[in-house]
Design goal:
It is a single chain. The chain starts with 7 loop residues before the first helix and ends with a helix. The protein has 224 residues and is α/β, with parallel strands linked by helices. Helix 1 runs parallel beside helix 4. It is built from 8 helices and 7 strands, in the order αβαβαβαββααβαβα. Helices cover 42% and strands 19% of the residues. It has a 7-stranded parallel beta sheet, with helices on both faces. The structure holds magnesium ion and zinc ion.
Length: 224
């Protein structure tokens, strides 16, 4: 830490990450690939959402899975019919742009329209790191409580869309969708908030349509 209170090393690490993220973004754009970075707590349903998404997109989607340990989530995606590569961070609580660049290089992206990055389960630091994605997807779930957008604003300010998963549990919980949605909009007036249930399938259409629109937009831009 220098005398002005700013640490020099983290600044250069961040700058390096930002440069790599831009490289990733250019490479993904050349392929006409939509890239979505899923961020949410452990257990909020990020992998379940991707399994549901694979029912529609199958070989049109690929996933970079980030976890501290195990290849369990990549196995789930593979079983659901989409390609996946697993990053085991070995302790790190977020993914960085270099890890994503390497993992993307391991994936066969032929015929893939949308690449998902499932970040390490964590509501805090993944939101501050650019990986070269088109949009961040914030995933929260009803058992976590409706105050999460207010408590963790950094993610919701940056998110292109917010998923509120596990709405099938609402009858058993003190959870106000109005409060959660209202807090998201206070932070980010343009954000889409999509309540859904990966278990029952309720609300999934809106999510799948959001992806289809993003894919179509990418293809149009690539053709120009
Ligand atoms: Mg997962
Ligand atoms: Zn972290």
């Amino acid at each position: 830490m220098s005398s002005d209170g700013k640490s020099k090393a983290p600044i250069s690490v961040r700058a390096k990450n930002a440069a790599l993220a831009e490289e990733n973004r250019r490479a993904f754009a050349e392929k006409g690939l939509l890239v979505l970075n899923l961020i949410g707590s452990p257990g909020c349903g990020k992998t379940s959402l991707l399994e549901r998404t694979a029912e529609r997109f199958k070989a049109r989607m690929a996933v970079i899975e980030g976890d501290v340990k195990t290849t369990l989530d990549a196995q789930r995606i593979d079983k659901a019919g989409a390609r996946a590569v697993q990053i085991e961070t070995g302790g790190a609580c977020h993914l960085d742009a270099l890890q994503v660049q390497r993992a993307a290089g391991e994936l066969d992206l032929d015929g893939v329209d949308v690449l998902f990055i499932e970040n390490v389960g964590n509501l805090v630091c993944p939101s501050g790191l650019d990986l070269g994605e088109d949009a961040k997807v914030a995933v929260i779930s009803t058992p976590e409580g409706d105050e999460k957008p207010a408590k963790y604003p950094a993610l919701f300010v940056r998110a292109g869309v917010v998923i509120i998963n596990k709405v099938d549990l609402l009858p058993h919980l003190e959870y106000s969708l109005e409060r959660a949605t209202g807090d998201c909009r206070k932070l980010n007036s343009a954000v889409s908030v999509l309540p859904l249930s990966c278990k029952t399938g309720e609300g999934l259409e809106a999510w799948l349509d959001f992806i289809e629109r993003g894919v179509a937009g990418k293809k149009t831009r690539k053709a120009q």
